[in-house]
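Database export, one record per block. Field names are fixed; values are copied verbatim from the stored entry.
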Amino acid sequence: MRLNLRVWRQKNAGTEGAMATYEVDGVSPDMSFLEMLDTLNEDLIVRGEDPVAFDHDCREGICGACSLVINGDAHGPERTTTCQLHMRSFRDGDTIDVEPWRAAAFPVVKDLVVDRSAFDRVIQAGGYITAPTGSAPEAHATPVPKADADSAFEHAECIGCGACVAACPNGSAMLFTSAKINHLNVLPQGSPERETRVLDMVAQMDAEGFGGCTLTGECATACPKGIPLPSIAAMNREWLRAQRKAPRG
């Protein structure tokens, strides 16, 4: 396959960026999208040019590091991570636009790499359990209803890639934050801190400059792990409940 790539190039956060056009030949349909970018970078290095910077790590759809907007879609035309998107999703001669996540809370570091440390600070605000539990208990020591266990597992699948933010027209992080809150709040171990968790994490999310949620649903459509849209409603209920119980002063 021969492809025409229009790639966002930006030296650093303090400089203006622009789309650059490249032609990549010899692309196998079995390559992943990142392997195709590797091929492009090999050609650029041979020509003495600066390779395109992009985020990646495990390349197995688990870590959430790969973060590209491909032809206007977060992670591309398939509901998967960029590293698991294969070139058979495109046709010979296609022109493909490749851009970084576009969100005020995710500033561009270089080219296709953005700073997603805002997510880390949201987690640090309360996405954990502080109660000492000692060594790992037996699996059946704390009974958990199956519906709660299923819900916790479903929300824990979030890999923090940021596709929800990139896809949202408002740049909202509500789906990410709700996944991190709900997967702990539905479990007995997370229940003692559920009020402070939701209040602190939502406050930090707002402080990071993410946009407001208007429930357009683009976040859930783009999520490669299928975090459902009702997760946001569940978080909102938790937040209202915590607000009513919070001391007034």
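Remark 1: Residues 67 and 196 are 31 Å apart (CA to CA).
Remark 2: Strands lie at 3-9, 18-24, 69-70, 73-74, 95-99, 108-110, 113-114.
End of record.
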